[in-house]
Amino acid sequence: MSLDLTDSAVAIVDPPHNAVEKDPLAGQGKEALKDVAFGSLAGIAGKFIEYPFDTVKVRLQSQPDHLPLQYTGPLDCFKQSLRRDGFLGLYRGISAPLVGAAVETSSLFFSVSCVSVAS
């Protein structure tokens, strides 16, 4: 309701019945769910791309110092790993990192969304 101050008369003017006040939080639950879902998918996709490179890095780093090197470099390690373990061998042990990446990226998407709505 508002006051209309014309010619010293005070009248109470009702807003039109079709005027709807915008709720700034309307639909936030649906948006939050989308942020969590898409953030989880993004984290999982990123981990699937990154994981074979991380596997090669760990294998190179875990070579013993006192023995002859098993791999001459990253490409050699990648080739030997494919020959020995196959393509799926590069993804051995990925389940826990997938969950972690999904949680991490979904919380990042959600928090960025919350900050952008607040500002």
Description:
- The protein is elongated, with a radius of gyration of 29 Å.
- The chain has a two-stranded antiparallel sheet with strand order 1-2.
- It has 3 helices and 2 strands.
- Strand 1 (2-6) and strand 2 (9-13) form a beta hairpin.
- The protein has helices at 28-61, 74-85, 95-118; strands at 2-6, 9-13.
- The protein has one domain.
- Helix 1 packs across helix 3 (95-118).
- It is mainly alpha-helical.
List the keywords:
119 residues; mainly alpha; 59% helix; 8% strand
How do the strands of the widest beta sheet line up side by side? 1-2
Radius of gyration, in angstroms, nearest whole number: 29 Å
Mean pLDDT over the residues? 85
The main pleated sheet reads as: 2 strands, antiparallel
Number of DSSP strands? Answer: 2
Succession of helices and strands: EEHHH
Number of domains: 1
The helix content is: 55-70%
Dominant shape: elongated
Distance between the termini: 28 Å
Structural class: mainly alpha
